[in-house]
Amino acid sequence: MPQSFGLAGRAYLITGAGQGIGQALALALADEGANLALADLNGAAATALAKQCAAKGVRAAGFALDVRDAAATEAVVAAAEAAVGPLMGAVPCAGVARAAPATTMPEEVWDLVLDTNLKGTFLICQAVGRRMSERGAGAIVTIASITGFGGQSGRANYAASKWGVIGLTKTLAVEWGRFGLRVNAVAPNAVDTPMIRAGVPAEFVTGVMEDRTPMGRIAQPSEVADAILYLLSDRASYVNGSILPVDGGLTAGFLTHRSGAEMALKR
Ligand SMILES: NC(=O)c1ccc[n+]([C@@H]2O[C@H](COP(=O)([O-])OP(=O)(O)OC[C@H]3O[C@@H](n4cnc5c(N)ncnc54)[C@H](O)[C@@H]3O)[C@@H](O)[C@H]2O)c1
Question: Is 158 a catalytic site residue?
Answer without folding.
Answer: yes
